[in-house]
């Protein structure tokens, strides 16, 4: 059978991107191996793919050259949709301080208790997406982020449509999205509901503080900062940033947990070793298995950027490639995490290798704000699942879309 690049070159230019996109999601590892070896920078009419570690690292480290301009129509003036701006640095710094890393051990213990309780209540049968991988991060948003009176279904819907529009409804996704405009409409409707809820929540927390309350949830702490005048951070920015906590917490966590578990359960040797680690007294014994599984199947195979000036990728190599201004560039970090120049024996599943030179939480200016929390929540949900006796799972149901939507599990009670 002809190789990927031979088939690519034989395909009319207008038909190449759908072909490449199908391989990117359907046959990623062999496709990426051929690209890294023979054409590590692959231009198509819709997007240019970079597949080697050095090029992906450069793209993510150069917001001056590779921007997040495609975020702006979806996220407005939220700081994550900005690059090297005062708003970005100020508000990211504020939110990093609000998400205290000192709380991470307590959060992990809480996730363990919450996930175990939900599985125990399920009595041996569950839709793992609705009942666990989305439900636990929603409960965390309620318990730790101050959304305690939020309706779980609404919280899930608001996160879902924002994630779907921002990350899976870009111009280069059009070949796989039947109705891009409907996703935009759903996101706008979700945001109108979420804004009403958040405004009411912020007003209620403000009234509690005025009455002498000492709330430690992020909303209360942000309001105290806004009221102090110590930073340019008014109640409207509180609403925007609190919404970002919700949007970032749910769907990406669910996707990562499902992918990691699917990889671990698919191979009997990996499964048995991971189950033994999950049964250990040390909760962190499972972590290496989970993050290595995420290397094999990350939630996001790439990060997209817009080239802001004529640029060059793979500079100084035989594969040096010009990238014109305005090009959509995909840093295909799934491929980069199998680059032997950055990862030792990349084809080997090695739970002891550590997270060096991986992109599980992005990299550079736009690395994930909640990486410390995600770094314990994801493996702890996996750990509790692997402790179920005689767990049997069906296929992950993505319902024709990019994210896990349902997953039927049974186990012995």
TrEMBL record:
Keyword Translocase tagged: no
Domain of life the protein comes from: Bacteria
Keywords on record: Heme, Iron, Metal-binding, Monooxygenase, Oxidoreductase
InterPro entries: Cyt_P450, Cyt_P450_B, Cyt_P450_CS, Cyt_P450_sf
Cofactor dependence: heme
Listed PANTHER family: CYTOCHROME P450 YJIB-RELATED (PTHR46696:SF1), P450, PUTATIVE (EUROFUNG)-RELATED (PTHR46696)
Family per similarity comment: Belongs to the cytochrome P450 family.
Name by which UniProt lists this protein: Cytochrome P450
The species this protein was found in: Rhodoplanes tepidamans (Rhodoplanes cryptolactis)
Lineage: Bacteria, Pseudomonadati, Pseudomonadota, Alphaproteobacteria, Hyphomicrobiales
């Amino acid at each position: 059978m002809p190789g990927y690049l031979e088939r690519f070159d034989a395909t009319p230019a207008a038909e190449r991107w759908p072909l490449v996109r199908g391989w990117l999601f359907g046959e990623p590892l062999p496709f990426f191996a051929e690209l890294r070896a023979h054409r590590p920078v692959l231009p198509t009419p819709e997007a240019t793919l970079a597949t080697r570690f050095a090029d992906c690292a450069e793209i993510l480290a150069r917001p001056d050259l590779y921007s997040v301009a495609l975020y702006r129509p979806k996220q407005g003036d939220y700081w994550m949709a900005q690059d090297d701006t005062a708003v970005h640095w100020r508000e990211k710094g504020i939110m990093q301080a609000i998400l205290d890393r000192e709380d991470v051990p307590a959060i992990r213990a809480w996730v363990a208790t919450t996930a175990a309780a939900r599985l125990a209540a399920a009595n041996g049968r569950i839709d793992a997406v609705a009942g666990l991988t989305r439900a636990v991060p929603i409960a965390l948003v309620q318990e730790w982020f101050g959304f305690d009176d939020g309706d779980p279904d609404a919280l899930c819907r608001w996160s879902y449509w924002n994630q779907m529009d921002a990350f899976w409804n870009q111009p280069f996704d059009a070949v796989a999205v039947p109705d891009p405009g409907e996703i935009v409409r759903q996101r706008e409707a979700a945001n109108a509901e979420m804004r009403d809820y958040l405004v009411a929540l912020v007003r209620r927390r403000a009234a509690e503080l005025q009455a002498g309350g000492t709330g430690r949830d992020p909303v209360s702490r942000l309001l105290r900062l806004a009221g102090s005048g110590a930073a340019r951070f008014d109640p409207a920015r509180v609403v925007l940033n609190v919404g970002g906590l919700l949007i970032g917490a749910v769907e990406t966590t669910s996707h990562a947990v499902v992918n990691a578990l699917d990889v671990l359960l698919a191979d009997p040797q990996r499964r048995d070793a991971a189950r033994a680690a999950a049964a250990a007294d040390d909760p962190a014994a499972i972590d290496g298995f989970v993050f290595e599984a995420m290397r094999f199947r990350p939630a996001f195979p790439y990060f997209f950027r817009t080239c802001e000036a004529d640029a060059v990728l793979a500079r100084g190599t035989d594969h040096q490639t010009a990238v014109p201004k305005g090009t959509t560039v995909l840093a295909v970090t799934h491929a980069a995490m199998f680059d032997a120049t950055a990862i030792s024996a990349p084809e080997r599943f090695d739970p002891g290798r550590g997270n060096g030179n991986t992109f599980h939480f992005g990299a550079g200016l736009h690395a994930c704000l909640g990486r410390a929390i995600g770094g314990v929540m994801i493996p702890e949900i996996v750990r509790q699942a692997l402790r179920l006796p005689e767990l049997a799972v069906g296929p992950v149901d993505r319902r024709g879309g990019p994210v896990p939507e349902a997953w039927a599990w049974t186990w012995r009670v």
